[in-house]
Amino acid sequence: MFERPDVGERAIIVHIDFSAYYDVEDLDEFRELTWSAGVEPVGVVTGTRKQPSSRLFVGTGKLEEIRDAVSANNADIVLFNHSLSPSQERNIEREIQCRVLDRTGVILDIFAQRARTHEGKLQVELAQLEHMSTRLIRGWTHLERQKGGIGLRGPGETQLETDRRLLRERIKSIHKRLEKVRRQRNQGRRARTRADIPTVSLVGYTNAGKSTLFNRLTTSTVYAADQLFATLDPTLRRLELPDIGPVVMADTVGFIRHLPHKLVEAFRATLEETTQASILLHIVDCHDDRRDDNIEQVENVLAEIGADEIPMLQVFNKIDLLENFSPRIERNEEGVPVRVWVSAVSGQGMQELFDALVERLAEDVVHHFVRLGPVDGKLRALLHEAGSVIEETHRDNGDSVLEVRLQQRDWLQLLSRADMKEHDVMLEQM
What we know:
Layout: E1 9-18, H1 27-36, E2 39-49, H2 60-73, E3 77-80, H3 86-96, E4 99-101, H4 103-114, H5 118-132, H6 159-194, E5 199-204, H7 210-218, E6 235-241, E7 245-251, H8 261-266, H9 268-275, E8 279-285, H10 291-304, E9 312-317, E10 328-331, E11 337-341, H11 350-361, E12 365-372, H12 377-385, E13 389-394, E14 400-407, H13 408-417, E15 426-427
Helix pairs in contact: 1-4, 4-5, 5-6
């Protein structure tokens, strides 16, 4: 599944606007997808039509135009910026005598090139096999007949039936292996939950700068490039935040318009990191003309995987591409940070992002002025040991007043270790 020729391919792009459909694909984005797949677009065929033809997707006149473009540009493949049915792909190939690939096939090819970990490769192969299972007959029509030869004559499977059976067995095998990966991920998440370590998951449209920001925040070296789907494999890194302590940051696969359902299903194990996060950092390319549309597409995918209820902080990235723009935090009516403007490349706004993230995660942080007597020495020692004491003052009667700031869960744990209850502690208003 992952062996590709080293030579680049020349492609004709086909983009049709259908008046009956309002949610059309974006031609510029498809050009970027084509380049990301390592294919050189040498020609574009555009047109308008009320609705797709059930047999050829396009009309006979447009098909003739595609055939002429293939011949004139010596193209190796025709890429449709649409989803084609298996029969439409076969019929178009038969008519123009050139290989045809639809939008889903292009995205799958990019994923096959980008997958680096064992899990990522399994997920991509699963999506490819499920996509291919409906297209097996293409190129194998000469094998429709039964096998012949010594020991193979008589009733038996056709070659096509054999291929389909092997495909089903391979898909079943990959499902089992991915289920094992999913169980391992769940164990890791349960361990983090037991330790009460928050998870911060980076989500966003593909090429919004998630991996660059991830590297900047965690001083990591995750592969980052100015291309669509540079990141496929989820990466987890531990990060220390002031007042919060350790958090786990997760870099995830980018989203795109009409992300094929096969890919959403195949990458469910990866996307579960998103659905189980304490907070989502939604990275947005603020310089992109399609910014608002991209935000909507990401929110649609989050709703599809059941992550739309998780608290979110928007991070408008790439302010270095805007003129005279400074990093800032935007808040809602309640004063809660909802958006931060940063540049992952230059590092502008990183302190603002840390501050906003800490503030959002610190919604369950307690800030107390605790009055302790001489008999409360155990709790006083535990608070100092945990590094939670901001300031300590002493009274004439021997009492101490400690200004403490720590997570609610840590506060309750320290009280338990000191054999005290919350109502046993004297709190002062300062």
